[in-house]
Amino acid sequence: MDTLTNKIKISIQGVTKVFPSKRADVMALKNLSLDVMDGEFVVIVGASGCGKTTLLNLVAGFDSASQGQILLDGQPVIGITPECGMIFQQYALFPWKTVQDNVEFGLKMKRIPKAERQEQAARFIDMVGLKGFEKSFPHHLSGGMKQRVSIARSLANDPKVILLDEPFAALDAMTRQVLQEQLVRIYEKHQKTIIFITHSIDEALLLSTRIVVMTARPGRILQEIVNDLPHPRNADVQLSDRYMELKRMIWVSVQAEVMKSIEEETV
Amino acid sequence: MDTLTNKIKISIQGVTKVFPSKRADVMALKNLSLDVMDGEFVVIVGASGCGKTTLLNLVAGFDSASQGQILLDGQPVIGITPECGMIFQQYALFPWKTVQDNVEFGLKMKRIPKAERQEQAARFIDMVGLKGFEKSFPHHLSGGMKQRVSIARSLANDPKVILLDEPFAALDAMTRQVLQEQLVRIYEKHQKTIIFITHSIDEALLLSTRIVVMTARPGRILQEIVNDLPHPRNADVQLSDRYMELKRMIWVSVQAEVMKSIEEETV
Amino acid sequence: MNTKNSSNLALISIVSLVFFLAAWEIYCRMGFIEPLFMPAPSKILSRAIKMLNNWSLLGHTLASTRRVMVGFIVSSLVAIPFGIFLGSSRFFMAVFDPFISLLRPLPSMSWIPLSLLWLGITETQKYSIVFMGSFVPSLLYIIEATKNIDPLLIRAARNLGASEVDVMREVILPGALPQIIAGLKVMLGIAWTCVISAELVAAREGLGFMIMNGKEYFQTDTVLLGMVMISVTVMITDLVFRKFEKRLLPWTL
Amino acid sequence: MNTKNSSNLALISIVSLVFFLAAWEIYCRMGFIEPLFMPAPSKILSRAIKMLNNWSLLGHTLASTRRVMVGFIVSSLVAIPFGIFLGSSRFFMAVFDPFISLLRPLPSMSWIPLSLLWLGITETQKYSIVFMGSFVPSLLYIIEATKNIDPLLIRAARNLGASEVDVMREVILPGALPQIIAGLKVMLGIAWTCVISAELVAAREGLGFMIMNGKEYFQTDTVLLGMVMISVTVMITDLVFRKFEKRLLPWTL
Amino acid sequence: AAGKPEKVTVVYGGSSWIGHYPVWVGIEKGLFKKRGLGVLFQSFYASSGRMGSLVAGDLDVACTGSISAIALMAAGNKGFMAFGTPDSYATVEGVIAREKIKRLEDLKGKKLAVPFASSAHVLVLDLLEQIRLDPEKDLTLVNLQVNEMPAAMASGEIDACAAWTPNFNMLLKMPGNHLLADDTQFSLYKKYQLGPGPDLLVVRKEFAEKYPNTSRLFVEGYFEAVDMLINQPKESAEVLVKLTNLSMEDQMAVQKDIKWIRGAEQKALMLQPGQFVKGMQLLAEFLVKHKQIDAAPAVKDWIAADMVP
Ligand SMILES: Nc1ncnc2c1ncn2[C@@H]1O[C@H](COP(=O)(O)OP(=O)(O)OP(=O)(O)O)[C@@H](O)[C@H]1O
Ligand SMILES: Nc1ncnc2c1ncn2[C@@H]1O[C@H](COP(=O)(O)OP(=O)(O)OP(=O)(O)O)[C@@H](O)[C@H]1O
Ligand SMILES: [Mg+2]
Ligand SMILES: [Mg+2]
């Protein structure tokens, strides 16, 4: 894609993450390395429990690696960094704030004056198609609308990188599709770097510029696939041969890893 | 399929369901008619909120229709009937009972002696691949394992009809696939009549003998498609032309209804 | 539940209450029970009218209400900031934990002897009983509320650039508010218990005094009237509090 | 939280308690405070040893514990079946609702005058105070627990052929049990409050009597010792209850 | 000529107050035992608790302050009867003040502790009326039990208090305290030699009717103990210190101030209608005047004539 440059935005270097526990320590990630270029849309797929969320938490600075390091624009990530905006599956909206106030939150933290942040928030609320809902509390919105608020909130804060952890998993298939299309539009317009986690291979193919398949726990990179499907990725593309080929390829490698982890679970 | 006979098992005749409410009454179903043959595997798809769960609740006798009637083997369904075993998305296992006791529950209600019901339960626990977990409490099981217990519990009660309301929606894609295969195996072996609700067109195509598409609310039947894909519906079948054709066909009709309901939501 | 159904249920409740009162009245009139042990409702009513006329009923009720309010408000004002602080600092929680554990099981009543020694028979002593009785439980509620905040929300706030202090003000306080208020509602009930205790032992006004004094003069009707007044006053405070709660928590509507 | 971290926190708690006791002791020894108002911890300890030697400390503690247990057990035995019944019948809930609403706000203390009139200064009177103080709140907890049962579980049971009675026994009772037990744990604390109240006003033994009597003889150390004993005894009862709880609810482990 | 007792155990409600000395002496000196009776001495702080227990059936006989008895009569309870009065006292109950308060008039604006609904309360109301002070406005009455008064006086929390023995004696001994007024200044005492709360012996009506022999034997034993208190004060005091926790010296002093009333004198006081009963009636009317009870009962209706010795 034309927005891709050759600058490395995020560099994950030999990261290992161990969770200490009373019984036995859990090694979630083992010596994982991955570079994400500026403007890439990387989708990570992998079996449940393979360490995807853990990896994203490390990038956002919520947690620190047991070994190895993560560089953002060449600087090691130490604490929580607002430069990596996170979008959670459970939306994580502030229930006591209206849509408007939720979207303004990041700007308020930057101590931007009221008038200015109102204006900016309004722009992003409009962008995600929620004009008219500014005064609503999250409680009154449907799942899809909540996730749109959460996207607007993140965008309003203008992060360089957006991290999404199965953002659409809780939505029904149809709402999900609408949001996927909106996300692609935003990505194309704002030239963000995106790391996106999903369980759905279709979703991965629909959105990504590159797909990363992780192994079963402890998570490492199993395979990387550059997604060269043409845009827009409409129904025609989804029924094309290249799509089928890519899907089969990913299917096979994910399948093997899933079997490993399911066997582990049931035995 | 060879298990299909020409006997009508369930006959839904001109059913309307209105939920009274303080503001405005909600009409969930409107004059819906549908016949399900003995041994059919009917999958119902439709936009969120179109009344699928409502319909299933009427069939199981949890609720009664505002107009019209439902016949099971020619007899009107009046109260809750154990002849239609229901499998819920949220599993609905009794948390205070072990796997064994959960599976035995229906038999205990029939006052079958302890020894006999232990033996029967063991058979079904084995069938869903949970041998060795008899003494576990649901709390300790993964989502996929819980849903398997719930299936075993229903089967042990030997219902004529099994109703499933998005049973696999809460599971990750990989676990879901394993359970889909198990369900097909059980269906083929035990010759049950099945009504299955899902949001996933892939799931519908993988499982059904017939697919019913519902309209947006108030729910009616929009389209019925006989699923003539060959068995087993492995990866090859899923990448076949006929599969693509059916998928596209359903996609288009569901899409239109979804758009109606999403527009309604956001406006 | 639809409207018709719920008004039906209210009707059942009213019928049931009326029936009970009538049965009680008749039972007493028939002389099955000594008025000393259980006076008829009509006796209680006439006592109420008498005490309303000389303003003493209102006086007792207001005295108790004032004590509850002062003790409760002071204890909330201390408990809320302190509870939020303890709930968000594991170190200070550990420092104060042994004292909280020791104070928690102590009924407000058990402070009466000590408070009498320290403060004498003053209004402050009454307030202190209400304070001691409601402070520790309030504190525990508030600590709990603070700890129960979804850590995801804290993460989200930090991820959007909030500092530790911002998180405290913007996330922990409003996030814990519904539970804090629910806790305070319970505490208000406990505060009433405390005040009645305090008044039973050394007081010259208040509903607790009224029922204790009624007992001294074998006026069982005064005792029962006092109890009814406690019920009614608590119910009214509760109602007022609930109105207030809705105002404070618009997003939960 | 890992093991090392949590043992660190326990250490902080212990250090904090020891430090506080030492400061208190030194403050008293320096004569900054009159022993009448606040005796040193060592004084309280020596009082404890004295009272342990003549068994009176144990006697008071056992007297109170016995009263709590009898009142509490009787009230639970009545409240559990009645609460489950009311929680599953909307009609009878409506019938009893006005009485529950009226009785709910009444502190156990307010029953003291009436119970003295009815029962005199007997052990039964003490039990009745504990009963009245813990019955209505227990009942409310149990009704709430019964109503909170996931209706999906009831549907599932009916769908598997359970009758109404089966549902009551197989679903409602075990389903409400964790919440019932949590409620009873709270009630046990309330029962302690009640017994101390009852003993402060009219008793010859028990921890409530001990602190009231200590105050009369200006033995502030006895007062404080009594309070410490209440704390410790409640904590021990709580611990025992928790063990018992784990036994009853194996599936929540 | 007395028959055998129908019931061998009598439950008696008492306290450390002087009115209960005869029963205590009777028990300790075996005066009931030799009549085949066992007497169970149950302690109560306040008369009201004792009277409540009596009519609830937990006690058979009790001695009570007459305020409680009158209140119970006013409440319409017919479950008990009076059959005598053991003593007349006037100097073991009174108002004690700190140094700075010289006269009753100095109480204005001060805090005066008194157990509400007691004889001391009645005394205080009467004294205040005599000097025209309004108990609601001119000073603060603090509702306090007598056993808590020493602490409250010591801490300076109250300026004066109204109490009875044995706390009365303890309070008087505390440095800086002095007597302001005692029952001799009570208006009815000045006219009729009647204190604000004379002691009254009461019996549960059902008990008296069902067990006439037991009742009579108890009365006999009781007044023998009264005689012993008069004739052998020292021996009596030796057993009484166990009840009162006073020193031997204080105990003797308390007893000196009491005028015991012998069995033979009871008829004149209690019957047709009797001096004492007339006084009680006046007291009842006094209580009505001070809004402590609603209406005055006819006291003579509550006399158990059969039991008066
Ligand atoms: N805080 C924690 N403490 C202990 N173990 C943890 C913690 N967080 C995650 N783990 C473990 O680390 C492993 C990886 O977890 P993670 O949540 O990253 O998986 P995931 O790939 O996101 O799974 P899913 O697809 O189900 O979301 C799991 O085995 C999990 O149990
Ligand atoms: N008990 C009820 N009271 C009032 N309205 C109800 C009730 N149950 C369902 N509805 C309404 O009826 C409509 C259909 O609901 P239903 O749950 O059957 O939809 P659904 O097709 O199962 O949706 P989903 O795919 O989201 O599960 C919805 O608009 C819903 O709000
Ligand atoms: Mg995850
Ligand atoms: Mg549904």
Average pLDDT value of chain A?
86
CATH topology of the largest domain in chain C: MetI-like fold
As laid out across the biggest beta sheet of chain A, the strand order is 6-7-8-3-9-10
Order of helices and strands of chain C: HHHHHHHHHH
- Cα Rg of chain A: 19 Å
Total helical segments of chain C: 10
According to CATH, the homologous superfamily of the largest domain in chain A is P-loop containing nucleotide triphosphate hydrolases
Might you state the CATH topology name of the largest domain in chain A? Rossmann fold
Unreliable sequence segments of chain C: none
- Count of distinct strands of chain C: 0
Level-1 CATH class name of the largest domain in chain A: Alpha Beta
The CATH architecture of the largest domain in chain C can be given as: Orthogonal Bundle
- Radius of gyration of chain C, in angstroms, nearest whole number: 23 Å
Oligomer: heteropentamer
Unreliable spans of chain A are none
Describe this protein's structure:
The complex is a heteropentamer, with two copies of chain A (267 residues), two copies of chain C (253 residues) and one copy of chain E (309 residues). Chain A is of the alpha/beta class and 267 residues long. Chain A has helices at 52-60, 99-109, 114-127, 143-156, 173-190, 201-207, 235-238, 241-266, and strands at 8-19, 26-37, 41-45, 67-72, 75-76, 84-87, 161-165, 193-197, 210-214, 221-226. The model of chain A has no long low-confidence stretch (mean pLDDT 86). Chain C has helices at 3-29, 41-53, 56-88, 90-103, 112-119, 123-147, 151-159, 164-201, 207-216, 220-248. The two termini of chain C are 18 Å apart. Chain C folds into two domains: 1-32; 40-252, MetI-like (MetI-like fold, Orthogonal Bundle). In chain C, helix 6 (123-147) packs antiparallel against helix 8 (164-201), helix 8 packs antiparallel against helix 10 (220-248) and helix 9 runs antiparallel to helix 10 (220-248). Chain E is of the alpha/beta class. Chain E is 40% helix and 19% strand. Chain E has helices spanning 21-28, 47-56, 66-74, 119-130, 149-154, 167-173, 187-192, 205-210, 212-231, 233-244, 248-256, 266-270, 275-289; strands at residues 9-14, 38-43, 61-65, 80-84, 87-89, 93-98, 111-114, 140-143, 160-164, 177-182, 199-204, 258-260. Chains C and D meet through helix 1, helix 4, helix 5, helix 8 and helix 9 of C and helix 1, helix 4, helix 5, helix 8 and helix 9 of D. The complex binds adenosine-5'-triphosphate (2 copies) and magnesium ion (MG) (2 copies). One adenosine-5'-triphosphate (ATP) binds at residues 19, 21, 26, 28, 46, 48-54, 217 of chain B.
